[in-house]
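From the methods appendix. Each design record in this collection lists the tokenized structure first, followed by the designed amino acid sequence. Records were kept in a plain field format so they could be parsed without special tools. The example shown here is representative of the layout used throughout.

RECORD:
FOLD TOKENS (135 positions):
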């Protein structure tokens, strides 16, 4: 379960987005209030960033004004997943570098490719798969 800080961050993200829409007059106060109310009603249901993204997708059906926020959130989730992937590869490289520099170099080189995921590297490198499963 996420901390209250995470939920506060989700609410803050929407609040800042709505503030920007109000400032640029892309939404009126009544509409911004309706959107904020829906977010507040659902904030306690959010367990992860993915759930927050799903909430924004759902609310976007009723509130077209959320379209730019949806794009930002998709990008943030993609960046977050890429960062997790890169972190796992770095951890593995550090773990194995002293004993197998060749494999460490190979997996780091392949991780730079846009096409690779943890699953694809796990399939190709059994030691990486074992490392991921242990941690």
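DESIGN:
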């Amino acid at each position: 379960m996420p901390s209250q800080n995470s939920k506060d961050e989700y609410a803050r993200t929407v609040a800042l987005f709505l503030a920007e829409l109000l400032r640029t007059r892309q939404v009126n106060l009544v509409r911004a209030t309706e959107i904020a109310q829906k977010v507040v009603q659902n904030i306690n249901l959010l367990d992860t960033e993915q759930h927050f993204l799903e909430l924004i997708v759902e609310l976007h059906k009723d509130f077209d004004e959320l379209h730019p926020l949806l794009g930002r959130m998709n990008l943030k989730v993609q960046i977050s997943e890429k960062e997790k992937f890169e972190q796992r590869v770095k951890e593995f490289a550090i773990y194995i570098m002293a004993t197998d520099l060749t494999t460490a170099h190979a997996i780091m080189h392949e991780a730079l490719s846009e096409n690779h995921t943890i699953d694809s590297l796990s399939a190709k490198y059994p030691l990486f798969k074992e490392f991921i499963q242990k941690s």
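APPENDIX NOTE: Helices lie at 4-23, 29-42, 49-60, 67-97, 101-111, 118-124, 126-134.
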